[in-house]
Design goal:
Blueprint (H helix, E strand, L loop, with lengths): L10 H19 L5 H13 L4 H11 L3 H29 L25 H14 L5 H17 L5 H21 L7 H12 L1
Helix pairs in contact: 2-6, 3-4, 3-5, 4-5, 5-6, 5-7, 6-7
Amino acid sequence: MPRRRRFGLSNETRKKIARFDDRVDGAFDKLRGNPLADRVFYSATNLGEHGLLWFMLGALRGLRSEHDWHAAVRVGAGVATESVLVNLGVKSLFRRARPPWETDRAFAIRRPLTSSFPSGHATSAFTAAVLLSEEDTLAPAYYAIAAIVATSRIYVKIHHASDVAGGIALGLFMGHVGRRLFPLPARPVGMVGRTEGLSSS
């Protein structure tokens, strides 16, 4: 009886994914060991644990106004929901092995016990970036931070590059679903004017 292909992936496709992972990891090897890069990426990976960074950024946005408070609550609920769905649901479908744990690392990090695919850090980062960026002039910063958090998982050798790519795609999808299901209330008229003034200055 022929062996079933998990999730419809042929051996050739799996080889292509492995080659992609190896190429990206090789590119990061050229950066690993740089003191500044080590500090940035290890800090990002630790702050991304359990969505901590996104709860902090959401709280900071919530301090601006009542309208922004709604955005803060939404991102907190969104990241919490994403964590449950990904860690207890999606990851259990794949059970992919992570890169070898036994390797030299510049700083201490937590050892995950869940499946490698998809990257939970990447998923939560881009779910949060999509939710936080709505009606906010800091949108480019949210996406830049999300990209650093996501790629930090490759840098610290906790995830394969394809895990991170899958997490980014899933996070973007979940963020936009969250926007559609839980739209922000309309801004007060005076606040709209102030926001437009800030974005044009």
